[in-house]
Amino acid sequence: MSVAGPGFVNFRLTDAAIAMEASAMLADPSLAAEKVEPMRTVIDFGGPNVAKALHVGHLRSFVIGESVRRILLEIGHDVLSDIHLGDWGLQMGKLLLGAALASGWKNGDPTSFINPQVFDAMTVEELGALYKSGNAACEDEASLALARKLTTKLQDGDPLLAEAWSRMRAISLESISVTAEMLGAHFDLFKGESDAHAEVAPMLNDLITRGLARESDGALVIDVSGDGLPDNVPPLLLQKKDGASLYGTTDLATLRQRVRDIGAQQIVYCTDDRQALHIASVFSAARTAGYADNVELWHVTFGTVRGNDGRPFKTRDGSAASLADMIDLALAKSSEKVADRQAAMVVGLGALKFADLSTPRKTGYVFDIDRMTSFEGRTGPYLQYAYARICSILDKAAEAGIVPGEAVSVSHPSERAVLMECLWHPHALSEAARQLESFEIADQAYRVADAFSRFYADCPVLKGADPSARLATCRLVARIIGKCLELLGMATTQRM
């Protein structure tokens, strides 16, 4: 211990203390993670819309949301994840109108021109074209009125429209699930806005009866305040003049269901920062109504993905980038650097995820495919290669009959340095959970890997005086990096 100026004291751990703590961490299956009292937690991430291809924003919600889910599970929470589909409201009426137009409808009631069986052979892109057609038609007031009428008929349970909607929803969900599975995003629930429809009417009646909802220019609103909202924040619109519900209505109803039916004690929403005001208003309304008593509500916001020009990322032809475009770019680039096809996929997807998670989520980041797929610097491939290299060392040791020791020792300053970085893991995990910030884990992984690189250069492992002891250090480092990659949703490969 030494005094370092007024108010500062430096502590230096002995090598023996570091070795003792590192050995205990190596023996602990949880790597000394600090567990918490379990809370029933619902995490809402994804938010894709029916009949629309996944876009660049969904990369962030899937990757950040999945990592937060894993972090909360790691510290002991009981977590349910919900994709929360956009499958209700006027957008469905516009989609149905587009389907009628594609079948030759020109005037009158478009319902008879909608054939549910037609959708079975369609792709999401083709459904998207129907939506674009219906949306463009709605620039005309008469067509917009028809789209609203179709929406109302669907929500009232018209059998033909309900069947058509169900088929389009299933096609969209199948496509979304393929991409989510590729990205390793796990969902326990596949509910959508439609699942809150039956909750809306009784909820509005409850709010009106208790004097919490009021009329404003023919619409129904609820006042919101607090939660960081500005003093002049407008009320949350619950019902329009024509009786239509809005996103705020279904989001409030969904929150109420999650607390009442699932028993949520904590709800985490993972969306981009443009929805901050909306989510805060829903939170405020839920607390005002007593729908979230003793429930912790969190909004995990994130910034945008930008191109090298600083603007929202687009493809080379200037069009808006889809999530498929981004995945294809990453996989193509990783295939140039990694011969094995499966390993190239692991590296490409890992590069995407680490680029997304290695900066604080609120800041956003620049999509630079060459930098993010590099095996040098602060990248996903660098970490995956570090893990693979350690696995190779342990495999060679096993072939030579050398067994890693059960206890860790400190024999060199570089070994001390890498073990010190390993000992920060429980703190990094606790901070990541407290802040709902995966950057803490990404930063921890890189620091450990970087320190190991220096250790490996300075300290012979298999040819050293005590290979078993140094293999114990290697095994601990591999477990730390492997756990960090797991918490980031990144797969590992033992050979590259």
Structure description:
With 496 residues, this protein is α/β, with parallel strands linked by helices. Among the domains are: 13-37 and 325-487, Isoleucyl-tRNA Synthetase, Domain 1 (Orthogonal Bundle), CATH 1.10.730.10; 90-182, no CATH class. It contains 17 helices and eleven strands. It has helices at residues 15-27, 56-74, 90-102, 124-137, 141-155, 159-182, 197-209, 247-261, 276-289, 323-337, 341-357, 369-372, 380-399, 413-423, 425-435, 439-458, 467-487, and strands at 2-3, 9-10, 40-45, 78-82, 213-216, 219-222, 236-239, 266-272, 296-302, 305-306, 365-366. The strands form four sheets. A four-stranded parallel sheet has the order 4-3-8-9, sandwiched between helices. Strand 8, helix 9 (276-289) and strand 9 (296-302) form a beta-alpha-beta unit. Helix 14 packs antiparallel against helix 16 (439-458). It is globular, with a radius of gyration of 27 Å. It starts with a strand and ends in a 9-residue tail after the last helix.
In terms of topology, how is this protein built?
Elements: E1 2-3, E2 9-10, H1 15-27, E3 40-45, H2 56-74, E4 78-82, H3 90-102, H4 124-137, H5 141-155, H6 159-182, H7 197-209, E5 213-216, E6 219-222, E7 236-239, H8 247-261, E8 266-272, H9 276-289, E9 296-302, E10 305-306, H10 323-337, H11 341-357, E11 365-366, H12 369-372, H13 380-399, H14 413-423, H15 425-435, H16 439-458, H17 467-487
Parallel strand pairs: 3-4, 3-8, 8-9, 10-11
Antiparallel strand pairs: 1-2, 5-6, 6-7
Helix pairs in contact: 1-14, 1-17, 3-4, 3-5, 5-6, 7-8, 8-9, 10-11, 13-16, 13-17, 14-16, 14-17, 15-16, 16-17
